[in-house]
Amino acid sequence: MDKLPTIRIGLVSISDRASSGVYQDEGLPALRTWLERAVSNPVEFVERLIPDEQAVIEDSLRALADQEGCALILTTGGTGPAPRDVTPEATLAVADRVMPGFGEQMRQVSLYYVPTAILSRQVGVIRGTSLILNLPGRPKAIQETLEGVKNAEGQVVVHGIFASVPYCIELMGGPYIETRSEVVIAFRPKKK
After folding, report:
1. pTM of the model as a whole
2. Engineering a disulfide at 160: which of 27, 78, 147, 153 sits with its beta carbon 3.0 to 4.6 angstroms away?
3. What does the alpha-carbon distance between residue 117 and residue 165 come to, in Å, rounded to a whole number?
């Protein structure tokens, strides 16, 4: 492939306090930094910093998918059991199809690090031609779930979710995404 296509990626940080300026948001910078390291394609980021309000989250996800044409939308925050954690409900409300393996794998990766990973409710869904994934709220956990668990030699022990993202987007009719192998290797079945 001569020239890689530009990928539009929506990034949504969901936090009452960060969106109101009580503290600085760490989610958007963490997502952007990881993606800049991992993806070889030129990337256009479309970012939102919003409160934990289900209607606002739904509207943001719809706009990023339908108007902005983002092939991938990553959210961070609002996936725990607290009453204001409504990101999964908002994501499911705008979904055309649910991709349960993404949430299952995120919890598997996180369980390697913390037993409270079972409290996370992240989901993965498809809306139109957009893949929407709910990630954890902390920068370290974001990197872990995207990249996976690696041993001391740097070999993957538990795959992170991003290994499957490029092929999923291709299967949905989206653009070809190439990754940098030192960060994450995109899995694609061998062609016969």
Report:
1. 0.95
2. 147
3. 21
